[in-house]
Write a structure and sequence with these properties.
2 domains, eight-stranded parallel sheet, 19 strands, 18 helices, alpha/beta, TIM Barrel, 481 residues
Amino acid sequence: MKFNNPIYENEELTYEDVFIFQKYFEGKSRITDVDITPKNKLKTTLPIVSANMNAVTGKRMAETLARYGWIWVLPQDMELEKMIEIVHFVKNASTKFDTPLTVHKNEYVRDAISIINKRAHKCVILVDEKNKPLSIFTPSDLDKYEQFMLLWNINKSRLITWNEDITPEEAYNLMHTKWISALPIVNNSWELIWILTKKDAVRRWLYTPTLDKNGKLNVCIALWINSFLEKAKKLIEIWVDTFILDTAHWFQKTMIDAIKTFRKEFWNDICLIAGNVSTPEATKALIEAGADWVKVWIGPGAMCTTRMMTGVWRPQFSAVYHCSKMAKSLWGFVIADGWIKEPRDLCLATAAGASHIMMGSILTWTFESTGDIFYDAEWNMYKQNYWMASGRAVLLRNSKLSEFEQAKKALFQEWISTSKIYLRDWYKSVWDVVDKFSTWLRSSLTYVWAKTLEDFYEKVIVWVQTPAGFHEWTPHGKVKK
């Protein structure tokens, strides 16, 4: 990456301060002429990672993201038994189809409605005692009935199913011909195993899942630095090969010693991510201690008040740019963690040298995030979002301590905020996020005429703009909430 004027290289710049300059394009298509697959140990096919936040990543998010080529990170607050349970669930999930939501004959409309927004396919399948599918319900099917109507008593047309051998094109054509939006997938015993939507059949043509060496969906686990060895050993036994040692301020002796301990204990096949930092010096220290990846970020997020409260930060574009230069010189990588609000931020972080970006709040407002859906007075859907240093997260983390110990820790809570996150029409599912961010990243590469992410970094020329310049490039029409 180059600045159009070298004097700006040592300025402190945010994503809003810069833009990418257009170049001549020699290709024909952003699909056939552009490859946005990262080249690194994470095995992802898209350069995006989910944040290790309690409000973001659970088993639904993990399974869906891995199937589309991202990698997900389970939060470090989770108990080991729960981590193992989710890892087993994801490793046994299909690499091609989604997991169905099911109800039984003795359940009611209200039971189906209570789970239908847990997954973006928004279908509930009625099964018998042998798990054979009987009927499929969408929200429009259920809206016309009162909530205590038995699902078995609702008349539905003959259910169409298929087996796992169906190709994406065959599935799409079948659903198009039969005027259905989702296809239950059954095994040879006619038992329900998966589900495929019409749109997802098309996505299977474009996206490649993130797989481990055994061909299973890949996983990543975040761990606290003061209690990671035993957890890591247990998780490696069930084929977890990527970990994040996570704390807010990694540039200190205790943290660097933790990396050395991890690397001494575990072999180089295990991928280690450490963070967070914002300077080349800190990046160098973590990579030389044994980290493969460094997470770059101090406080630029939707929920974090670290910058406001401590006065410690660095504008994120400059942090990523300088840290990535250092990481590349040491054969390491950086993840741009935070302040990713729109696809352009992904493009700019990649231009600055990030191999991946990490998303948090954008994923919170999807059906697949861990929280339950609530409704405000106007019946708009929202979820509760909270950061890992919020009062709520700290309380949950310390719930097993004595009352006095909890009171002591409460004196040092950072009280990073908790808020409502509304589900936006164009980002309600992880599918929507994947589609939009990957599509616009491909487009950005075509504007520079770069064939790969590495080529993009080499060819990009970044220009600095005024605040009025940033305002000019934002949409000016009224946007509905």
